[in-house]
Structures are given as C-alpha cells and as structure tokens.
Amino acid sequence: CQPVPKPESRVEVCDLSPCPPRWKVTPAGPCSSSCGLGLAVQLVTCVQILHGQEVLQEEHLCPAAEKPLTSVPCVIRTCSYEWSFSEWSECSTSCGNGIQTRQDFCLSSLTHKAVNPLFCRRFPKAVVVRGCSAGPCPELGGTLSPGAGLQPVTPATHLTAAAAATERRHKELDVPLSAGPREQTKPGGGEEMLAKRSFLCVCGSLFLNATGTINMTGVESRDCTVAIGRPLREEISVTILESSLNCTAGEVLLFSGRMMWRTGCRKLPLSLINSRTNTLIVKQRVVLPGNGVILQYNSRTATKKYYQDCDQQLFGPQGEIVNPVQLPEERQEVVCRTFITVAPRQRISIRALSTDLGPEANQTHFNYILVRDVSTMKTVVFRGKQQFLWQSTGSQAEIEFHE
C-alpha cells in the first residue's frame, strides 16, 4: 500500500450507553470427590462494566434464566474401589411376607478382590434387606396348641409378660426365680441335682422382680453374667452379702449400666452399688471352682430423671415398636428412644417391616432411625422407607427416632 496515501487514524464514539449487567463465573473450586463423580462449587456474581471498571451489582439486575449453575459435575479419575454384593438370599418365610438379605463387601476394581470396607466409606451403598412374598399361607387346621402363637409385647404389658415367662421357666425347673443361699436345696432328697439346676439358671438370667437375692457361688462357668431390669423411672441398688473371690488370682466382679461402670474384688461384702438407671448387668469372673458372690438387689424411684417422657423400655422376648409415640400436637424438640434389654444369654434382632406415613405424612416428623449396640457402642443409621434387619452382639440395644 506504499503508493497509496495512508488515511489519518480516527477514533469516534459509537455508543455512550453502558453495557447491561451480566453473570460472571469464577474458576471452579476443588472436586468434592477424590475419584468418581463429584461436584465442584463455582462463584456466580452479577457485574456491570461502568467507565471501563467492573462493578458488582445486585443479582436481580441480571437475567435469572441465564444464571449459570453454582455446582458443576467433576471427575478427577475413575474410582479404584466400589461396593459389590452377593446374591439375594431365599425369602425368610415359606409363605406370606418375609425379607431377603444379601452380603455387601468393598471390591478393588484393579484386583477384583475384597478389601477393607473403609475404602468404600465415601460411596453410596444399596440396600441389603428387602421385602419378599412367598404367596398366601394355608389356613391352619387346629394343630396349634393354646398360646403357641407369638404375641407382641406392647408397652403396657411388656414387663409383666416377660416376668411371667421367666417365672414359668423357673417353675418348670422347680427352682425359685432368685436362688438365695437357703433356697438351693429342697427337703425330701434331690438336693444336689436341684442345686446344680439353680446354678445353671442363674448365669445368663434376667431378673425383673422389684427385689431379690442372686447366688453366683459354685457356678461351673468362669464367666457368669446376670441382668436386672425394672421399668423406667426406677433405679437399682445392689448390696454384696458374701464374697469368696480370690483377688490375687484375678477374680473380679463387674457392674455396668447406661450411666455407670465399676469393677471390684476386695472389700466387696456390704458394699453398695447404684445403677442410676433401670437396668444393671453384673458379670463375675472366677478362676477357682466354687468361688463367687451372693448379692441382694432392690429397686426404688430414681432420684434424677435420665429419660424422656416419650422413651420406652422393652424386655422381650419379643415385641412390636410403633412410632411416633407422641401425637403431632405434642411434638417437642426431643429424641424418642426405645431401650431393649434381654437375658445376657440372648441376642436381639430388629426388623423394620413397614414404614407407612399414611395420609398425614406431613405430621410424621421422624425421618431416620438410629440403632445402637450397647455392648460395642456401635451405631447404625437407617433412613427413609428402608426395610432392614439389625442384629446385636450383646443383650442390650437402643433405638432413637430422629427428626
């Protein structure tokens, strides 16, 4: 263009009106997951250019329909671990409604072998219990004996029903509910056999009377555990009447409750232990045959309130739990709990068979259930309408119904 004259450079103002506000997106933050699909949060603001400067404006000035997402999907790498499951088991019943279960395990996608479940703790896990139906049950033709069917233990009758069952079981063995030092023999012969029966009955028993004497001497088992249970609003006190424990050999007596823990061997006679709640577990560990303790327990009204008004106590051997236990108009900011205590030789299974919110679903405020194994203090949470089967490792469990 050298032969052609070059025009002069000119700058003209083409539009004096400011640009309209627009959305501004800052770079996304870190991904929420170290592997697999996650979310990254990004900052979205409304800005406008005024006199060459970017000025922050209120969000309503920017077009709402064009606002970018504040969270965007992200994937850093493919996960190396994932949940895997076994096949579903057969239906638990041969007829009627039951449940199916399956085992879950954490699988390495590289080696295709099971690894510690901690590697999969960040990944969602599918349900391991589901309902099933094996068809209608045939009508029974009168072959059941009276009382053969299992009856649920309602909150109003659970204590008396469990106590009656325990009393019947002891009557069949012809021994008292709480065997004291003078109650282990029966006039007229058979003293040795009766004493042996009473020793076998004491270990692993649950005592529900308001007061009683428990003889734990001469038991054949090295570890002998008994439990004492009373209704809520009561507490239990135990007095050691006699003790032949050999402390130097490592023999010991352990007391445990929801709010206390105590061990001892020396100076046990006439010592007083207070459970501070309505249940108490006593465990005796002996080395030498014949050693043990004789204790007497009593119950009384608790000096301090350790429970909520909507709490319940169940002693088994079976029962039904229906929640919420409060009417909607009585709803308060409390956690309703159900305490379950069975004989130390037994374990607890909890099945969630139905979650029916009904037509007044907005008045049913509980949205997850927490189950705690008291012996290990391990807690499991079940949410929504999930059916589940939970089993304890000890003889005590707590259920909390949370909002």
Strands, helices and their partners?
Blueprint: E1 22-25, E2 37-41, E3 44-50, E4 53-57, E5 71-75, E6 81-85, E7 97-101, E8 104-108, E9 114-115, E10 129-133, H1 158-172, H2 191-202, E11 206-207, E12 211-215, E13 223-229, E14 234-243, E15 252-256, E16 261-264, E17 272-274, E18 279-285, E19 293-301, E20 312-314, E21 336-341, E22 349-352, E23 368-373, E24 378-383, E25 388-391, E26 396-402
Structure described in brief:
The chain is 7% helix and 34% strand.
Key traits:
hydrolase, five-stranded mixed beta sheet, 2 helices, 4 domains, elongated, mainly beta, Jelly Rolls, TSP-1 type 1 repeat, ATS13 metalloproteinase, 403 residues, TSP1_rpt, 7% helix, single chain
Sketch the major β-sheet.
5 strands, mixed
Count of strand segments:
26
* Helix content percent band: under 10%
Number of DSSP helical runs = 2
**CATH homologous superfamily name of the largest domain?**
Spermadhesin, CUB domain
